[in-house]
Amino acid sequence: xxxxxxxxxxxxxxxxxxxxxxxxxxxxxxxxxxxxxxxxxxxxxxxxxxxxxxxxxxxxxxxxxxxxxxxxxxxxxxxxxxxxxxxxxxxxxxxxxxxxxxxxxxxxxxxxxxxxxxxxxxxxxxxxxxxxxxxxxxxxxxxxxxxxxxxxxxxxxxxxxxxxxxxxxxxxxxxxxxxxxxxxxxxxxxxxxxxxxxxxxxxxxxxxxxxxxxxxxxxxxxxxxxxxxxxxxxxxxxxxxxxxxxxxxxxxx
Length: 253
Ligand code: BTN
Known about the structure:
By secondary structure, the protein is α+β, with helices and mostly antiparallel strands. It has helices spanning 24-33, 84-98, 159-163, 169-188, 192-201, and strands spanning 15-18, 42-45, 51-52, 58-59, 67-73, 105-108, 112-115, 119-131, 134-144, 209-214, 218-227, 233-237, 242-245, 251-252.
């Protein structure tokens, strides 16, 4: 394991490798409180024992087979209403790299990376610390199924399952860090329109009719037509009505 990444400008110049830990997001938070990490630091582990996912879910990952890591960012150029821009650049970067290994990889709003037909490959858990100055600190946790081939329950897949062979874990890691840095710097330069366009181009079910469920209408047929500036999902119903959803307000069926 290399201590720094040679192919980047600031991301991954300081890598904390932990053979085992509960959650790299929690470890990164502890190290942040102790002043041990800075913008661009990465906390990565081979064995995460209490990985956290979205909606209070757990994130399971077979030791030494997959990627589980957290990036420390200090995106103070964003204010609280622009938090979703970080989801955009991170999911876009991961999608871009995985698409070099297998076709049909998409971003599922808001945080998932999946293969259009085979299942979920990974997810992103971003935890922000917001002040009146903006986003002081952002912990970007990424979990990706790379070489795991057996899963305890249906739903997930991995790069190895999709490609039929083992994948170089550290190559995937290096490519992802490089790609996140590229998109992060574009965001910092204010290229948000371009980034949103790329996000939409790679969005799972964009412009396709599919089934959804929300608490108000129950199950309905609709198509995703885009996202708002704050990252809400726009779904046009078959009745012609346009609905906006915040995270957790709509279920993909
Ligand atoms: C999800 O799909 O629900 C998000 C999963 C995020 C998992 C990653 S693994 C590294 C980091 N540490 C955690 O505890 N969670 C994230």
